[in-house]
Amino acid sequence: MASPPPNLQEIHSTLYALAIRVGQMITSASPTTSNSTFTTKKNSSDLVTETDRLVEDVISSTLHQEYPSYAFLGEETSATTSTLTSSPTFIVDPIDGTTNFVHAHPYISISLAFVYDFIPCVGIVYNPFTQHLYHAVRGQGAFLTCPSLPTSAPPLPSGPNAGMENVEPVIAAYTTTRLPLRAPAPPLEGLRTALVAVEWGNERAGNNWEVKTRTFANLAGEEGGMVHSLRSLGSAALNCCAVARGDLDAYWEGGCWAWDVAAGWCVVEEAGGRVVGGNEGEWDGKVDGRRYLVVRGAEGGQEEFVREFWGRVGGKLEY
């Protein structure tokens, strides 16, 4: 007897609640740049903390209990040789942006994805410090749930030397907004008007490093793409969500893993964006392909933008 198809809405609800739960573990932790709070994996730029491991343990045990027949791929517990199959699979990064986390830079996220038949079907990306939670279910759109303040200014100072008093407290509420934030999304007009995210990664020598650095120069240089600017923010999942929002026009990456991008991939596609491979001609990007070009939703110009971008890639990424 065939297994019933996955209940995507139920899975979404489970992952949504789980992200909020483990987010409290992250915000209550106190990592530092002291070697006593983290260890290195590949090299000194590839970090893991005890919080990473504890959070993944909670996520893994919860999902195994709720969905015992589904596969699980997690950054801290799955070998990098683990293979994604067509089976229903949870793909998890407990802290995407560990280096930021260690430095107390609050651009980190919990990335929780459900992938079925190699397709990202549910994506949850949560930054517990800003309380921005991005969520999507295949075929149902992408959304951002976050605090919404009834005033655009902080509370006024109080005290004898302030010269003014608070009249009433500012109370935070939460709103859910469909992505992209600008609808209809404006057309893509090429690299010269683009804001693009890139990441340095932890591979700091060899072919892929050289391809990256050449590409960065090709994108930013006056004789190249002359993009408005490049951004390197430290979290692949949040970079994808910024593309889904429409804040970034594109995100190009090589060397990250399925757990870095699977949840963001779902959010991007449900917001009208597109994910292809990072090398020229890779129109059918793979979740575990380790090289990605993520392009925002637009009324027009997506394919032309991808072709122009590929023309500025300084070689071939090989993973």
Provide a descriptive summary of the structure in words.
The structure is a single chain. Helices cover 28% and strands 23% of the residues. The protein is α+β, with helices and mostly antiparallel strands. The strands form three sheets. The protein has a seven-stranded mixed sheet with strand order 3-4-5-6-7-8-9, with helices on both faces. The chain has a five-stranded mixed sheet with strand order 11-10-12-14-13, sandwiched between helices. The protein has a two-stranded antiparallel ribbon with strand order 1-2. A hairpin with a 4-residue loop joins strand 7 (132-137) and strand 8 (142-148).
Layout of strands and helices, then pairs:
Layout: H1 8-27, E1 38-40, E2 47-49, H2 50-66, E3 71-74, E4 89-96, H3 98-102, E5 109-116, E6 119-127, E7 132-137, E8 142-148, E9 173-178, E10 195-198, H4 207-220, E11 229-231, H5 236-245, E12 250-254, H6 258-270, E13 274-276, E14 291-295, H7 302-310
Parallel strand pairs: 3-4, 10-11, 10-12
Antiparallel strand pairs: 1-2, 4-5, 5-6, 6-7, 7-8, 8-9, 12-14, 13-14
Radius of gyration over alpha carbons?
20 Å
User: How would you write the strand order of the largest sheet?
Assistant: 3-4-5-6-7-8-9
Tell me the number of helical segments per DSSP (H or I, 4 or more residues long). 7
Q: What's the total count of β strands?
A: 14
Distance between the termini: 39 Å
Shape field = globular
Given as residue ranges, the uncertain stretches (5+ residues, pLDDT < 50) are: 43-47
Strand content: 15-25%
Class inferred from helices and paired strands: alpha+beta
| Largest sheet entry | 7 strands, mixed
Helix content: 25-40%
In sequence order, what are the helices and strands, one letter per element?
HEEHEEHEEEEEEHEHEHEEH
